[in-house]
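Notes from the 1:1 (GR / supervisor)

We went over the backlog. Supervisor wanted to see one worked example end to end before approving the batch request, so GR pasted a single chain during the call. The sequence is below; no edits were made to it. Supervisor asked that the structure be written out right there so they could see what the output format looks like.
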Amino acid sequence: MTVPGRRQERLQDQIRAELAEMIELELKDPRIGFATVTKVDLRPDLRSAHIWVSVNGDKEAQDGTLEGLRSAMGYLRHELCLRLRLRRVPELIFVLDHSAEDMHRIESLLDQANKNT
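Structure output shown during the call:
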């Protein structure tokens, strides 16, 4: 593994941990429901990061949470700059993570298949 790769992985983990803490404890936007930062994909040039967020609730709650997170992006980037001492903070792109929903759907399909056999 190359040195830039390790730096990128370490920075992804730090960004995920800091964002998770800020979303849970500091953001007071009523649109933001129970959200969990599941993954951060940082581009190799460190200019943008896709933040994968899992949100409990229906489609409306998920959309509201994404809207709230996008409106808090300036605060989140500023805080990341201060906490991680970065010269340039990547652009944050929030994306819904549907992996938990997909897992539940697959489990229910497998249960149905087992019951039918």
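Supervisor's comment: The first strand starts at residue 35 and ends at 42.
Batch request approved.
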